[in-house]
């Protein structure tokens, strides 16, 4: 069942929802400190000097401090051999001050992201991308859930009173977003379809979605006529494009002005999924810290 098309373009305010989540994390960090005398610590590893990645990594460190946690940055040169990165991860795995480890993606070509991701001990894998946490998610066992899909799920829960029985269409089947997103929606009681590069009629499938999550990295892919009237649209895409006046701006995978005429609820870019990704990273770091400092605290 879809919602009525009452107010077109009802915005989902990811920035505000992310701020509330971060505020909650901050309170719980303080409670953990009072109980154990220790603060959660997050290590962020960046290999190379991609300017966009540098901005994200700095932003993550800033938000980590804002939530009252400790942040450790490791910036390695573009030419870092894989073995050297694995050596750093081994040290971080064994460091009791570090509860979460994130290796920023993408990585330079000499490094296999799967090898690196799986080198992080599962209880510090705050990206939730390793085999153990991905397996736990698909089996419905508590674990660390990838930040972007978790952020999308929280936005959907804030927007829709009930997801059980809704048809959710996920466009994009990556290990980073599409696949874990589909697992979370399934767990929520949705009927889930995943469209990918070989899907015959992605627009037709998208139009079946009461919920549409778009994570392809192809800006402007999803037009207004891909959207079911009254649907809830979550746009994960984030691409920097040039504007007429020689500046740049961020756009999603969805043609926003078209989509907001049709959808009941839609996330903007920026200010939608992006801020939630960082808030969920903080949430996961707190969860990871609890796993070692306060095991009875458990995983949500
Ligand atoms: N291991 C790993 N984990 C990640 O979670 C990960 C990654 N690698 N590599 C890159 C992508 C990208 N990503 C974003 C996080 C925040 C915003 C964000 O805060 N966006 C703001 C705008 C920021 C701006 O103005 O540039 C917004 O949408 O409002 C965007 C993108 C995390 N990623
Ligand atoms: Mg966004």
TrEMBL record:
Reactions the enzyme catalyzes: (6R)-5,10-methylene-5,6,7,8-tetrahydrofolate + NADP(+) = (6R)-5,10-methenyltetrahydrofolate + NADPH; (6R)-5,10-methenyltetrahydrofolate + H2O = (6R)-10-formyltetrahydrofolate + H(+)
Gene3D superfamilies: Leucine Dehydrogenase, chain A, domain 1, NAD(P)-binding Rossmann-like Domain
Residue ranges occupied by any Tetrahydrofolate dehydrogenase/cyclohydrolase NAD(P)-binding domain in the UniProt entry: 146-290
InterPro entries with a match to the protein in the record: Aminoacid_DH-like_N_sf, NAD(P)-bd_dom_sf, THF_DH/CycHdrlase, THF_DH/CycHdrlase_cat_dom, THF_DH/CycHdrlase_CS, THF_DH/CycHdrlase_NAD-bd_dom
GO MF annotation: an example: methylenetetrahydrofolate dehydrogenase (NADP+) activity
Pathway: One-carbon metabolism; tetrahydrofolate interconversion
Binding positions (NADP(+)): 172-174, 197, 238
Gene Ontology annotations for the cellular component aspect, listed alphabetically: cytosol
Domain of life (superkingdom): Bacteria
UniProt-listed PROSITE patterns: THF_DHG_CYH_1, THF_DHG_CYH_2
Keywords of the record: Amino-acid biosynthesis, Histidine biosynthesis, Hydrolase, Methionine biosynthesis, Multifunctional enzyme, NADP, One-carbon metabolism, Oxidoreductase, Purine biosynthesis
Protein's GO biological process: L-histidine biosynthetic process; methionine biosynthetic process; purine nucleotide biosynthetic process; tetrahydrofolate interconversion
Residues making up the signal peptide according to the UniProt record: none
EC numbers for this chain: 1.5.1.5, 3.5.4.9
Domain Tetrahydrofolate dehydrogenase/cyclohydrolase catalytic per the UniProt entry, residue ranges: 12-127
Classification via Pfam families: THF_DHG_CYH, THF_DHG_CYH_C
Subunit structure: Homodimer.
Function (record text): Catalyzes the oxidation of 5,10-methylenetetrahydrofolate to 5,10-methenyltetrahydrofolate and then the hydrolysis of 5,10-methenyltetrahydrofolate to 10-formyltetrahydrofolate.
PANTHER family: C-1-TETRAHYDROFOLATE SYNTHASE, CYTOPLASMIC, C-1-TETRAHYDROFOLATE SYNTHASE, CYTOPLASMIC-RELATED
Stated family: Belongs to the tetrahydrofolate dehydrogenase/cyclohydrolase family.
Name of the molecule in the record: Bifunctional protein FolD
Species annotation: Brytella acorum
């Amino acid at each position: 069942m879809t919602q009525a098309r009452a107010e077109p373009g009802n915005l989902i305010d990811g920035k505000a929802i992310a701020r509330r989540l971060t505020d909650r994390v901050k309170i719980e960090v303080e409670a953990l400190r009072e109980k154990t005398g220790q603060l959660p610590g997050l290590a962020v590893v960046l290999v190379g000097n991609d300017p966009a990645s540098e901005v994200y990594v700095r932003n993550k460190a800033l938000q980590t401090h804002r939530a009252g946690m400790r942040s450790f940055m490791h910036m390695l040169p573009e030419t870092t051999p894989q073995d050297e990165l694995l050596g750093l991860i081994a040290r971080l795995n064994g460091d009791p001050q570090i509860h979460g480890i994130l290796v920023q993606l993408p990585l330079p070509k000499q490094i296999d992201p799967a090898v690196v991701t799986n080198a992080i001990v599962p209880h510090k894998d705050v990206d939730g991308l390793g085999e153990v946490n991905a397996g736990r998610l698909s089996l419905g066992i508590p674990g660390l859930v990838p930040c972007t899909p978790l952020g999308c799920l929280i936005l959907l829960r804030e927007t829709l009173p009930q997801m059980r029985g809704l048809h959710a269409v996920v466009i994009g089947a990556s290990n980073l977003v599409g696949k874990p997103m589909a697992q979370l929606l399934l767990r929520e009681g949705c009927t889930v379809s995943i469209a990918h590069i070989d899907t015959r009629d992605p627009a037709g499938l998208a139009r079946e979605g009461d919920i549409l999550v778009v994570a392809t990295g192809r800006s402007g892919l999803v037009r207004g006529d891909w959207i079911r009237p009254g649907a809830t649209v979550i746009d994960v895409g984030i691409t920097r494009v040039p504007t007429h006046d020689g500046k740049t701006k961020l756009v999603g995978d969805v043609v926003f002005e078209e989509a907001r005429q049709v959808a009941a609820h839609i996330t903007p870019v920026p200010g939608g999924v992006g801020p939630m990704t960082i808030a969920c990273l903080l949430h996961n770091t707190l969860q990871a810290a609890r796993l070692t400092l306060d095991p009875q605290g458990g995983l949500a």
